[in-house]
């Protein structure tokens, strides 16, 4: 097929995907698989090869990230039911002082956001934000909006969250490398976000009674236990990060070969998270007097909630694989290169546009991966540069959260904001955070 024909098919496939998800309200998993199948057939993939092309992309993606997402969800579940996140947040407020309550809440959101999905983190920390706001006679959004912004930044940029892991897998770059660059970028972005939020939300918004969201089902014996200490929660949060980073650094460390090999094994992302699951089981469950049966029940309860996320991520991998195999991705990449825009800005803008059009960050990242991958392959980028391109896509996945994003409704409902005020506050804040992250990435780019 000609380049023009491939471009037309690619644009129609993306448009079809957006139509199926937005006005027709089709589940993203079904929409991605349907469009991937239709795109493959129209592009000339033989029926005999259709299943291999679609299922191959899905299986390749899930083979790497499904276990990471599942283990990460289990760790998040143990933190959630232990009550330790609230204890940690209150301790930070006490240590930093009441005049730094926003900073304390931001630090807690950053720490909790690493192993916990965005929506769960919001529900976990919102009661604390409500209590702190009431003590100071502040409107809830003054604390809640920056706190939720920090959770979204961590969700979009850092492994083990599905978007970051899926992009690293698609680009063939180590998750540890993405984490090593992503941590300082996310930290600086969150600091800028907190500073901006402190001044931005001094103005008044119309507020209704905030909605209350229940936590997930909790087994009876857990309700009778005191919350886990903050030190235990910090250890569980830090453990996989340290192991993964040590795995990346192990080849260059002056240590005996046996220790280097051990560090490399422990640094494999799924191994690091598996170790962390056992650590969480002990520190947040068994050591608090819970029976192994109850702990196992809570671990199993983490899976149903993330099953659809895993399927969507896999379907995004199938769509990306079709875009690559049919040559559509290469044609789109060639057309975008002709604009003369730098790869960082292109990856960011494409993700931001798809995010604005269809909502979920993970779907936007997976869709963009299929478009950007051929460009990365032709540019001959280094692993560090490739990781930064993936993080630029993550930055695009932060911005323009509005009415087609489930996160928009969770935040505005819990904060009691109207849709109009939500657009003026939450959408604005997420877009500023997105630009902050892109700015940080652009500053690092010349030095890698």
Automatic annotation (TrEMBL):
Database matches in InterPro entries: Glcn_transporter
Regions crossing the membrane: 7-24, 30-50, 62-81, 101-128, 140-158, 178-196, 233-253, 265-287, 299-322, 328-350, 362-381, 387-411, 423-447
Alphabetized UniProt keyword annotations: Membrane, Transmembrane, Transmembrane helix
Highest taxon in the source lineage: Bacteria
Gene Ontology MF: a single term: gluconate transmembrane transporter activity
One GO cellular component term: plasma membrane
The protein's name in its UniProt record: GntP family gluconate:H+ symporter
Species of provenance: Pseudomonas oryzihabitans
